[in-house]
Amino acid sequence: MSDTNRRAFLKGSVILPPLAALGVSSASSQQTPAVDELAASAPAAATPAADDYKPTYFTAPEWAFVQAACARLIPNDANGPGALELGVPQFIDRQMGTPYGDAANWFMQGPFFEGAPEFGYQSQLTPKQQYRLGIKAIDAWCAKNLGRTFAALKPEQQDDVLKKVEAGTIKSDEAPLKTFFSGFLLKNVMEGFFGDPMYGGNKNMAAWKLIGHPGARADFMEWVDRPALYPYGPVDLHGRQA
Amino acid sequence: MAVTNKSVDVVIVGFGWTGAIMAIELAKTGLNVLALERGEDQDTVPSFAYPKVVDEIAQSARNGLLQNLSKTTVTIRHDKDGRALPYRQIGSFKPGTGVGGAGIHWSGVHSRVMPEELRLKTHTLERYGRGFIPEDMQLQDWGVSYEELEPHFDRFEYVCGTSGKAGNIDGVMMPGGNPFEAPRAREYPLPPLKDPPTSVLFAKATKELGYNPFPLPASNASRPYRNPYGCDLGPCNFCGFCSDYGCINYSKASPQTTILPALRAMPNFAYRTHAHVTRVNTSADGKTATGVTYIDAQGREVFQPAGMVVLAAFHLHNVRLMLSSKIGKPYDPNTGEGVIGRNFCYQLINSVNTFFDKQTYINPFMGSGGVGQAIEDFNADNFDHGPLGFIGGGIIWGRQTGIGPVRGIPLPKGAPTWGSGWKQAVKDNYAHTGRIEAQMSNMAYRGAYLDLDPTYRDAYGEPLLRMTLDWQDNDLRMSEFFGDKLNAIAKAMGATSASGRVLKRGDHWDTRAYQSTHINGGTSMGTDPKTSAVNKYLQSWDTSNLFVLGANVFAHGIGYNPTGLVGALAYWAADNIRSKYLKSPGPMAAV
Ligand SMILES: Cc1cc2nc3c(=O)[nH]c(=O)nc-3n(C[C@H](O)[C@H](O)[C@H](O)COP(=O)(O)OP(=O)(O)OC[C@H]3O[C@@H](n4cnc5c(N)ncnc54)[C@H](O)[C@@H]3O)c2cc1C
Ligand code: SF4
Fold this sequence. Notes:
The structure holds two protein chains of two kinds. By secondary structure, chain A is an all-alpha fold. Chain A has helices at 3-12, 19-22, 37-40, 60-73, 88-96, 127-146, 155-167, 177-194, 206-211.
């Protein structure tokens, strides 16, 4: 169904319960309040990747780290632009300003105890705090052991540091680095890369094009039983095509 | 108490699937019915409208439609000597909130129950003997029979517009359906959905292996449909934003699409949102519920008097309300006495990603929550357990639920997790990856139970529900058996490789990764008040004007998805309330 058809369908499907069958007089029926369907179905305003973006949450050294880490985690290579080029650092910075940044929907009451990994996140650090402490600890490790902050290292050195943080061999008393890496940094990089461009990453839907994902098309009635290459490019939540 | 409302005939706690069913079925009698829902009001338009809702960041990454854990959650431990830790982030299960409950973001797989599972203890003793049951396994019969429930399964399927193919109509085997199916009175209301690539490959492979594939019954409409309440469903377009999402097309059965349009029109029904119920109030002798207490949007404590109370607040909250309201004796794992919290069960899921060559397109972004092909050759007691030495079974399926990259792109074993190698791997694999799964029953054990946490409290000052549960030897041996079947099926499907999660002996319940929201047990139904919290009509043994709905009334786990049974039990309870209880209120079953 095209979008216009879909809206027509939605409009057409006003649901009429047979009131008589229910023994209810129609005079007393409550109607769902009328809503402007177009306005109500619109996503929030887009804040796509901007060339002159200035971070709001991250400090200058943190911003340098986030950009450098993005460039290594999803590099710009023969398969096209990477996380840095697609605006993922901006995505992460913007996310810090949402309820997620403060762990608003997580249970954050104490007491806090460490548990077996199967019991999930047990730290009292919010995402914002994870980044603040995690970046500081990694930069401190790099400065001490390699003589420069993470952002100033060579790409191969950066890869090596990230691998060691992921494996848990670079540790810090100041931050749970392994959790920071897998539960925040890498997770948020993937979200920014593949999320809708309205959130600041996935510029021009390049990540969707890379893997052949059609984005927000959400209508495969004619295609679901065809095991063939899907021929259409992606569409984003604001209706842009690429 | 600060505020006391005007009394109603029936107050229903929670306005999701079971709350909506009970509300309309009791409102039809003319009773004054009020539903109290803790979350927001929501409806297809505006809440689940396209394009707004098909947003992986908002719904899947940030859990837009799920219970806000900062308000209330549970604590979890593996055994009764461990320290329970809070479920701080959404992981293994995804409780809903707001009007419609988890009936909004569910997938739509719509099953019944196998007749012998409702009398599993008797059946196991008959077929395998007492020595077959592990010592700490608490098997029991449910007190209700499949034949009694059949009209109610039928009713719920016709309300949902379930798409499927009958395998057994009144004992006559139907080609193309599930040959293990328990007898049903008539065909499904709608024909099966179209098969996506994963399901086609799965059906072919399982047939070659000598199994009996059939289209999984799905409450995602395959055609336009008008249900018995006069509510209209439109055909599912395989949008790929189903599980975790509200349906954009009025296709997935939910309280909103199948019941509320009719219910809202009834003058003797009302519902209130932002009403978080904290107690069922009872008379001094505990035998009568007098109403419920809730916290309203302004934080005020409100007493809502009622002639009858129905708990429909989802598994977790139904059990917690029984415990915090001190109705029924709490279960004690040391003595095995008490019933509230007893026989808490879950399900085991083995999930195998199947990777195909570049010519084989799966297109995993297309799909629907319930669409797929399945086999039940190893469900319930459809196979001889004797030589295998475990109790329980499950369903194996090749579903294609629709998935996008923010929800995670599975990769073959050994693929890098980031960097250029990862980028190459997602590019190569995304369009060519399917998934097959086994969903298996988790039996009831003496040491698996629910009680109130002694340490942690929620935003309302109430103790959290504490879960004590881990996989047991019986279940893990079953899981290994299913793991072998899955690997053989993956190979027969032509997968070039497979990766995933198969639970093996030594594994523990991992609360981090999503598996299913099919937790059950805790206020079992049954015939004996010493081992059940409610009778066969879902009426509390202790407080006869209190009815308890939800998967918490299961006596033990099943391999099927629960909602077909949960819904049927709600219709069954409503039917008996109308035909028996309202005529002569009081206990409906003899002790
Ligand atoms: C992602 C997902 C996929 C699923 N897929 C399937 C599937 O394919 N097949 C299947 O059979 N099942 C599936 N399920 C399970 C299905 O959603 C549930 O079985 C079903 O919704 C249970 O109905 P219920 O009425 O018990 O609870 P719900 O539908 O969740 O309704 C409970 C309501 O009570 C409210 N509530 C809770 N506590 C309180 C309180 N204290 N005061 C007031 N209100 C309260 C909640 O906010 C909620 O609205 C799935 C679930 C999830 C999360
Ligand atoms: S896949 Fe079908 S049933 Fe599911 S949300 Fe999309 S249109 Fe609705």
